[in-house]
Amino acid sequence: MLKLFKPAAAIDRLPAEKVDAEYKKLRLQVFIGIFIGYAGYYLLRKNFSLAMPYLQQEGFTKEQLGWALSAVSIAYGISKFLMAMVSDRSNPKYFLPAGLILSAITSLFMGFVPYFTSTINIMFVMLFLNGWFQGMGWPPSGRVLVHWFSVNERGNKTAIWNVAHNIGGGLMAPIAVGGATLFATLYGTSKGSFEGTFILPALVAIVVAIIAFILIRDTPQSKGLPPIEEYRNDYPSNKRETIERELSVKEILFKYVLNNKWVWAIAIANIFVYFVRYGVLDWAPTYLSEEKGFNMNKSSIAYFLYEWAGIPGTLLCGYISDKVFKGRRGPAGFVFMIGVLIAVLVYWLNPAGHPIIDMICLIAIGFLIYGPVMLIGLQALDFVPKKAAGTAAGLTGFFGYIFGSVTANGVMGTVVSKSGWNAGFILLISSCLLAAIVFAITWNVRGQEIVKNN
Ligand SMILES: O=P(O)(O)OC[C@H](O)CO
Fold it and tell me: Where along the chain do its domains lie?
C-alpha cells in the first residue's frame, strides 16, 4: 500500500465536553465530502456515451463504440473488488480524491490528445483505465459511512448518500453536452466537439475532488473521538465489541468476506439486479425507437426520468427497510423487485402508440430498481465488520458488473438480435424474479446481528 494512503492513526481523546460538538460537525462534513465526491465520480462514469454520437460522425460504428464502452463496466467490476481491498486499509481522504483525479486525467487525455481517441483499441484501453480508477469511489465512501454512522442509522444515511450517484449521473449529460458546445465554439466548428464531453466533466470532477479532499476525514479516532458505536451507544452485537484495529488483506478476504454465505447471497442477487438496472436503461433508447416509435428527444427524456425517479425511490426504500421492516433489507428488496417485475411487464406488453404509459413504466422501473441497488450495498456494509466493509461491497459490485451489467449489454444484444424483443423481456422478467427470490432468502437477516466481530 502506498504510504500516502496509510490509514490515519488514532490520536489522544478530546476532552469529554468537546466530543459531541466535534462529532456533529465532522459527521456532517465527511458525509458531504463522500456525497459530492461520489457524485463527482459519476460525472466521468459514462460521459463516453455522450461522445459516441460525435465519434460516429468521425467514422466509428455503433458496434465498435459499444465494445469500447464495455471496457468501463469490465474494469469497474474488477476494480471495485480489488481496489476495495486496498481501500479498506487506506485513508479515504486521500483514496477517494486520488481515484477521481486519475479518472479525470484519463478523460482529459482523451479530450486534449487526438491520439487517445484515434482508434477503437486505444479508446478501449483508455476507458478500461477510466473504469479502473472509477472503482476507487465506492469503497472509501463505504469506509466513511461505517466509521461515522452506526448500524441503526445506516439504512437512512446510506440511502441518502446513494442518491449522489443519481445526481452525478443526471448532471453528467448537461455538463458533457455543454462541454461539446463550448469546445465547438473555442475550436470554431459549427458542429459539437466530442473533445468537450471529456474535458468539461473532467475539469468539474477535479474541483469536486479538491473539495472532497478538504472535507473527508478517516476514522473518528483519528480526530480524537470515540468509535461511533460508543458515541451513539449502538453496538452491532450484544457483546458490545467492535474491531477497531486495521485488518490484514488475508483476514478481510478469508475470514470475513469469502466465507460469509450472506455476502455470497447478495452478490448473486446483484447479478440479477444489475442485469435489470442496465438491461432496461441501456436498451431503452433502442427499444423505444424500434418498437414504440419514439424519436431521440423523447427517448432521452425517458432516460433522464428513469435516473431521477431513482432518487425518491431509493429514499423510500431505505426508510421502509428501517421503519417497516426494522432493519431487515431482504423484505424491502423483495417488495421492490416484485414492483419492478410488474412495471417491466407493462412496459413490454403496452402496444405502440401509448407513449405516456411507456414513460410511466420507465419512471416506475427507475423509482423501484435503485432501492434494491442501494440495499445490496447496505447489506454488504452490514454483514461484515467495518474494517472489511468496502471489500464486501466490492465483491457484490464485481458480480453485479461482470455478470450482470456486462451481460445486460452483450447477452441482451445477442438475444434481441437473434430472437426479438420478447426473448429479451423474458430475460428481464426472469432476472426480476430471481433477484426477488434471493432477497426473500435473506428475509429474516438483520445484517448487524450476523456480523462476526471477533
Ligand atoms: O453501481 P455503483 O457501483 O456505482 O453503485 C451505485 C450505487 O451507489 C450502489 O449502491
Answer: 15-224+248-453
373 C-alpha vs ligand 1 centroid, how far in Å?
A: 7
Q: Does 15-224+248-453 carry CATH code 1.20.1250.20? A: yes
Quick: pLDDT tens for 217-235: 999 999 999 999 999 988 8
**Rounded distance from Cα 15 to ligand 1 centre (Å):** 38
CA of 346 to the centre of ligand 1 (A): 26
How many CB atoms within 10 Å of residue 92?
Answer: 31
| pLDDT score at 71 | 93
**What is residue 218's DSSP assignment?**
S
- Where are the extended beta strands (E) located within 173-288? none
Per-residue pLDDT tens digits for 92-136: 999 999 999 999 999 999 999 999 999 999 999 999 999 999 999
Which residue's CA is the nearest one to ligand 1's atom 9? 374
Q: Which atom of ligand 1 is nearest to the CA of 161?
A: 8
d(CA 433, CA 451): 28
239 pLDDT above the threshold of 80: no
Q: Residue written as cell 454488504?
A: 380
> What residues line ligand 1, using a CB cutoff of 6 Å?
80, 138, 162, 165, 373-374, 377, 397
> Quick one: DSSP state of residue 246?
P
Q: What is the pTM of this model?
A: 0.89
CA distance 328 to 332: 8
The CA distance from 56 to 52, in Å, is: 6
Is the predicted pLDDT of residue 189 greater than 90, yes or no? no
CA of 384 to the centre of ligand 1 (A): 18
Nearest CA to ligand 1 atom 10: 374
339-342 long-range Cβ contacts below 8 angstroms, 24+ apart = 339/364, 339/368, 340/276, 340/365, 340/368, 340/369, 340/372, 340/432, 341/429, 341/432, 341/433, 341/436
* Cα 422 from Cα 203, distance rounded (Å): 43
Per-residue pLDDT band for 448 (boundaries 50, 70, 90) equals low
Q: How far apart are the first and last CA of the chain?
A: 25
pLDDT tens sequence across 357-375: 999 999 999 999 999 999 9
Q: In a mutational test of the pocket of ligand 1, which residue from 34, 45, 163, 165 has the highest number of ligand atoms less than 8 Å from its CB?
A: 165
